[in-house]
Amino acid sequence: MKYGKLLTFLAGAAVGAGALLFVNSKAGKNLAVAVASKGLELRERAAAAAELLKERADDVVAEAKCLNERKKTEK
Length: 75
Known about the structure:
With 75 residues, the protein is mainly α. The chain has one domain. It has two helices and no strands. It has helices spanning 4-24, 26-74. Helix 1 crosses helix 2 (26-74).
């Protein structure tokens, strides 16, 4: 069992080296660019959805405040 950590480290190093070689290749670069592009697109969509949700929440809060003010003036 004392070689387990060493083997895990070596396996990780081998995977890292392979990933580095793959990313440095033309196909790897193209794949990395495509993945990054989709990631940026997803981030933009998430930001837009969050902004829409915030606007709707602000509308609900404003309507609740308005309702509370109407109730106060009716009393």
